[in-house]
Automatic annotation (TrEMBL):
GO annotation, cellular component aspect: membrane
Listed transmembrane segments: 88-106, 112-129
Phylogenetic classification of the source organism: Bacteria, Pseudomonadati, Pseudomonadota, Betaproteobacteria, Burkholderiales
Domain of life according to the entry: Bacteria
UniProt protein name: MAPEG family protein
SUPFAM superfamilies documented for this protein: MAPEG domain-like
Alphabetical list of InterPro entries matching this protein: MAPEG-like_dom_sf, Membr-assoc_MAPEG
Subcellular location as annotated: Membrane
Keyword list, A-Z: Membrane, Transmembrane, Transmembrane helix
Coarse class of the protein's main subcellular location: membrane
Length: 130
């Protein structure tokens, strides 16, 4: 298995972790009874950290399909190399770092880290299109 496919797999693990993390924080707010119910009644609004975790999760889901498609296309098209390897590492590491930065409400640095993840994605796409 290539490094790029392994990094894609770890990115999927990150996605699952983000689902569980946001759900755990939300469960603390609404309680298990509410979460096991049909949720016919509206829940209270999420607290700031929970809302940030939910937004960080949604943010990952904006680029994850693009990242997965680019990695798989580069793999199938035999376009793997240094550019895809570095791009995948940049994407995954930046996405991991992004979660606590967003949860803690750290502005500017969080956006810069997001930019690194986007640069990694672009590197994979460039390798695919060369």
């Amino acid at each position: 298995m290539t490094m790029e496919l392994k990094l894609l797999g770890w990115t999927l693990v990150l996605a699952i972790v983000q689902i569980l993390l946001a759900a755990a924080f939300r469960n603390q707010e609404t309680g298990t009874q509410y979460n096991l119910s049909a949720r016919d009644e509206p829940a209270p609004p999420p607290r700031p950290v929970t809302a940030r975790l939910q937004r960080a999760q949604a943010n990952l889901y904006e680029t994850l399909p693009l990242f997965a498609a680019a990695v798989l296309a580069a793999h199938i098209g035999d376009r793997l190399g240094d550019l895809t390897s570095w791009g995948c590492w940049m994407y995954l590491v930046a996405r991991v770092v992004y979660v606590p930065l967003y949860a803690l409400g750290i502005p500017v640095v969080r956006t810069l880290v997001w930019g690194v993840s986007l640069a990694g994605l672009i590197m994979v796409i460039v390798a695919l299109l060369r």
